[in-house]
Amino acid sequence: MHVRRLTGYVTAAVLMSLPLLSGEAAAADPPGDTAGSVAAARVLTYDASGTAEFRSAVDRGAAIWNESVEGAELRPASAGQRANIRILADDGWPRALTTSLGNGTVWIGRQAVNQGYNTVRISSHELGHILGLPDRKPGPCSSLMSGSSAGVPCTNPYPNAAEKAEVEDNFAGAADSPSAVVGSAPVLIKD
């Protein structure tokens, strides 16, 4: 009788754990989550330790993207962590070198800042390249990716609806992959 009961318990435990072992387990939505089917954001870390006086502008540019899209989330890298994005300050013109979607190097160039361009707009714009957006020049101030062609008076650091949608498309389903684009050639975008 004890053997039969023990066998029943073992069988029940095995049957209940099969979905976990086969990878078919599904987590319940957190309470209050109305989205239900929204995919998790792909987390991209950035190292802004080399941005000198532009650190707050870089952090604000990352926060703007986090407020604007759900498919990618930019977070500062932890100490000793290898970041997806390296951000540096230099005396040249701002630019981005993308190695793959969500990975690369950004330079916040003092040349544009010295000419009067807004540092938060520069940061948001260059991070836009890392998120897969091209320059759209010439363009209006309402287009973040119009970059310097919008002129010095333009301080808009926010992506427009089309730019947001393009980033969402770029990162659709990318949360589960370490790199959505593998084996692509680095692309230098000099603004």
Please characterize this protein's 3D structure.
The structure is a single chain. By secondary structure, the protein is an alpha/beta fold. It is built from five helices and six strands. The chain has a six-stranded mixed beta sheet with strand order 2-1-3-5-4-6. Helix 2 packs across helix 4 (119-130).
Summary, kept brief:
The chain is an alpha/beta fold and 191 residues long. It is 33% helix and 19% strand. The model is unreliable at 9-37 and 179-183 (pLDDT under 50).
Question: Which helices and strands appear, and what pairs or packs with what?
Answer:
Layout lengths: L1 H21 L19 E9 L4 H14 L3 E5 L8 E6 L4 E6 L2 E7 H5 L4 H12 L30 H11 L15 E4 L1
Parallel strand pairs: 1-2, 1-3, 3-5
Antiparallel strand pairs: 4-5, 4-6
Q: What is the C-alpha radius of gyration, as a whole number of Å?
A: 22 Å
Indicate the low-confidence ranges by residue numbers. Answer: 9-37, 179-183
Structural class: alpha/beta
Give the strand tally: 6
Question: Helix amount, in percent?
Answer: 25-40%
In terms of DSSP E residues, the strand content is 15-25%
Provide the descriptors you would attach to this structure in a database record:
single chain; 191 residues; alpha/beta; six-stranded mixed sheet; 5 helices; globular
